[in-house]
């Protein structure tokens, strides 16, 4: 679970509820929610192909719940494999899948063990990376579009509320509450966009960049193993992907 | 028919009408509709060349009603043709048009059968792809411009309504309904932009990308056939265009 | 004359005047017009060099009144010239200016007849195309800036009206009409931007692209003639610039 | 002095003051000016390094008061120098500084006279051009940022005025004037942005492009002189930088 | 300490407080601050990875408090080192760290003294520069996002205040103060964005560019020393990074 997101959502919600004080129930209005959320979702269904939308849940879940592989661990594993391949031969990596749960790394090592040509390995795994990137990019775009649509439907809801209120001006005691309800859709739209959709889109982009970096590094390592590189050379190559303070001798 | 768009439009409209409750008739105002739609359309006529606008209907219809060729079917067909060309010669593909309704593929195969040089085939068909892309891009731009213009004409309509209302302030009982009508054009403008024009523009872009991808893949397959490539090589080349989970052995 | 623009302006204006109904005179206020138009023009004089602004009228007129050369006619003329040059020699093109009113084409043919080196012809005519492109681009930018400035000066006018009105609140019967006049500048600014400036900028861009395409094609044809290419080869080269449905054998 | 800017500022100001009529004094409020201008300037001090800001005045002055070198004059001077260098040798250009007040040209000619290597001349003078470009770009960015900040501080001032007014609702006769003063900061912010900051930024960009073009052309001329090119060749090279209607034989 | 930022913040704050006059206490509302700041911070926690956010404080502090190395000093030091390396050999630079507190320069010189290959030095130090750039870029993006989020949460706070106020319209004497408090969150959001977040983001970008320029120049100098270049050549190379008026003979 992504701790930052949880803390952020809890803190912001708590302070907003605090600001509402004893009027908190005045901010719960089911029909207003339906207009904002339903309108946004309806427009998104027109906006993006159904296949993309059906994949959105999975992407968001993956991004917020899956721990990214730690860059240093991946580098350590690859250097270890490179050493073994050198000492005991490529075939000694056959059972590598038992030692790591990094599917992308396992797939790459298996291609090396199977004796697939380097250029083909590169093509296959680069395609894989591109597809992940594209899927994440579409996901971030969908969330950003929701962040643009929800305030618009919030305003549409407020316009509906205002028009209804203006038909009933004779009952002056009802003007205040009617207008309050009209404003609530704008409130929902702004809150959804600025606390959920836009920040989610941002984090998805950051996580995707991080994941793609790890995969690029993994691919470079696998190609170095396939080329029979010395583990020290492999380490030098991969270390350039690490932030300076994380670098250190992993081969010892 | 594009199911997602239908569901999206129905859901959003239903929830918005639900939100209007018994006041739904207060939101139907023909002159307001004329100002928003007419103003937007008038401005679009000034904005884009007439030829482009006349083509918009067709593009939108194609995009929402035509089923895109399934990528796997196109690949399967090309691999099949590649196999036949190898076994029975290029000329055996002469009647291929009877087996597929994919005009672009048929046109390409015919060029191969006619013995046109590979580089010429590539140029002709790339031009074709570029023209489709350009036409779709213009279409998406027109829809996006409508999405920017309709809220503006909604606001223009509201300003007209407000100015008229302000001339009649003495009749206080009329203020409410007059103002309600003034707001309706803003409501129309916002709804048209956020439920129709902007999402349509988005889907047009996504469909176009998908169609262009299929055509690029088709072109690569046709060039491989013209070059007399082995069906397995053709398959390998084309599979890199498929999402990983869709890949599989199509040659068997 | 550009029919689409005329229809668009007439339709939009008619519907907007229809929406004003019997209050149409309430929307004519000369001082408000002066603030919006004068403010926008004043700011544009600060914004762009005087030389560019003085050329704007001509650019706009050219774009909306000059019929672009039809692409097919230009191609047909070039193929015809290529054929004559082959049969009767380059010098036979000397009087070509009598047969076409396309100045750019005439200029190019004259350069060929004068025996100027191909690379020099290319440089001279490419520069010419670049200058046209640059002039159109500046024109489109000026119109787009007017589209951004006029709503701003509309709001500035409304602020002026509101401040004046707020000084006179004691005369309650004047509040309505004063506020109405205050809003009219916003109305003017929005209408000018969304019906005139922004759409004009858009059409200027589209026409410019079309004109530049025709000139690129003309240049390629002239270079082919200078190189003594076979008319059929010239046709093949130029046809790739045509939309598929417009292609056909022009040499016969 | 840049005539267009003066006319633009005078016309726009006159029409706006005309629109204020007899209420013109109601629009002069010193504290409001302090909030908008002071806030904008304060934020700009945080935004940009002090060195850049201190240079802004000079850049703006240069751009609006210095007459750009006329392109044709510069070309004529270079062709003249090229002719003299050919007839009387490079050293004859030693006293060229007496004949032109174009510092950049003089500097270049001096480098040629000093016998500096061509590639070094090119590097030195290209660096010079880059620094001018960079300084102008930063200037245009600063003005554009002021154009974004001043409406924001206008709104901040209005919020301050509204909050103060809302504390004093009991004195109903003061509401109008208080609110009028509150709106004045928004008026100042919008006027500064749309009549001064944004248009100044635009003109700075246009002048900078023009100046850089003249310097590029000057550099090319100087390199041609250093290479001992024939004056006619120099003319041909430089003429391609001129708009077609300005071209003509300068060597005669 | 960055003097410009201090002056800017003091001046803007002073003028704004001046504008508030005797009502300054009316603008201090702790719950409103909590909603705007807490909401913005909560959303930022969802928006960016925790690691990036934890580094933000350090980046901001570094940028506003660390004096950038003066470009001329760095160049003078490098030319001095280049001279010594020539006269007394590379190893004479071993104790260079005692003479300068520029860590990046020291690190580079040490790599040269250690006899590391030039291409490896370049790779290591370029990576270092890239990581600094990336960290600053992320920092500037975070501040810019806060500048977009804080006005949004200001508006959300105002909507909360309005909804609460509208529930209590019967107590007319409370309407003014309630509405005043509702507006204060919008005031906070606008002030934070336009005086703090957006300008800080701008200065971070400018400082980062300056720092990266100094490091690029340092790297070029170190590579020249490693290559055993003559100090005069080193000076020529590095001077091209200086603004013209700062150039001068540093070797003498």
Concise summary:
Chain A is mainly α and 252 residues long. Chain A is built from eight helices and no strands.
Structure explained in plain terms:
The structure is a homopentamer of 252-residue chains. Chain A has 252 residues and is mainly α. The first copy, chain A, is built from eight helices and no strands. Chain A has helices at residues 3-20, 30-47, 50-65, 71-88, 103-113, 118-166, 172-226, 231-239. The longest helix of chain A has 55 residues, at 172-226. Chain A is elongated. The two termini of chain A are 33 Å apart. Chains in contact: A-B, A-E, B-C, C-D, D-E. The A-B interface holds A 31-32, 34-35, 38-39, 41-50, 52-53, 123-124, 127-128, 131, 145, 149, 152-153, 155-157, 159-160, 162-164, 166-170 and B 3-5, 7-16, 18-21, 23, 26-27, 173, 175-177, 179-180, 183-184, 186-187, 190-191, 193-196, 198-200, 202-203, 206-207, 210, 240, 243-244.
Any chance you could write out the topology, listing elements then pairs?
5 copies of one chain form a homopentamer.
Chain A: H1 3-20, H2 30-47, H3 50-65, H4 71-88, H5 103-113, H6 118-166, H7 172-226, H8 231-239
Give the SSE order of chain A as H and E letters.
Answer: HHHHHHHH
Span of the ends, CA to CA of chain A: 33 Å
Oligomeric state of this protein = homopentamer
- What characteristic shape of chain A results from the CA principal axes? elongated
The main sheet of chain A comes to: none
Query: Would you identify the regions of chain A where 5 or more consecutive residues have pLDDT less than 50?
Result: none
Helix content of chain A: over 70%
Strand content of chain A: under 5%
Largest interface: A-B, 40 and 47 residues
Count of distinct strands of chain A: 0
What's the helix count of chain A? Answer: 8
Rounded Rg of chain A: 26 Å
Question: What structural class results from the helix and strand content of chain A?
Answer: mainly alpha
Q: Residue-averaged pLDDT of chain A, rounded?
A: 87
């Amino acid at each position: 679970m992504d701790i930052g997101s949880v803390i952020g959502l809890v803190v912001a919600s708590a302070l907003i509820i605090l600001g509402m004080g004893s009027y908190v129930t005045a901010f719960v209005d089911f029909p207003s929610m339906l207009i904002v959320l339903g309108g946004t979702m309806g427009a998104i269904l027109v906006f993006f192909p159904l296949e993309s939308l059906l994949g959105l849940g999975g992407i968001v879940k993956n991004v917020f719940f899956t721990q990214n592989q730690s860059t240093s661990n991946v580098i350590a594993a690859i250097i270890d494999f490179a050493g073994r391949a050198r000492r005991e031969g490529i075939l000694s990596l056959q059972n590598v899948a038992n030692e790591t749960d990094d599917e992308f790394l396992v797939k790459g090592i298996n291609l090396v063990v199977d004796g697939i040509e380097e250029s083909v390995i590169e093509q296959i795994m680069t395609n894989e990376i591109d597809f992940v990137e594209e899927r994440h990019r579409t996901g971030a775009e969908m969330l950003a579009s929701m962040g643009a649509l929800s305030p618009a439907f919030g305003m549409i809801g407020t316009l509906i509320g205002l028009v209804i209120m203006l038909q009933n001006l004779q009952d002056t005691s009802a003007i205040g509450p009617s207008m309050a309800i009209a404003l609530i859709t704008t409130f929902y739209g702004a809150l959804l966009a600025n606390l959920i959709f836009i920040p989610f889109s941002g984090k998805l982009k950051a996580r995707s960049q991080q994941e793609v970096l790890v995969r690029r590094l993994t691919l470079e390592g696998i190609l170095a193993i396939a080329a029979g590189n010395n583990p020290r050379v492999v380490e030098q190559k991969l270390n350039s992907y690490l932030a300076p303070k994380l670098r250190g001798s992993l081969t010892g």
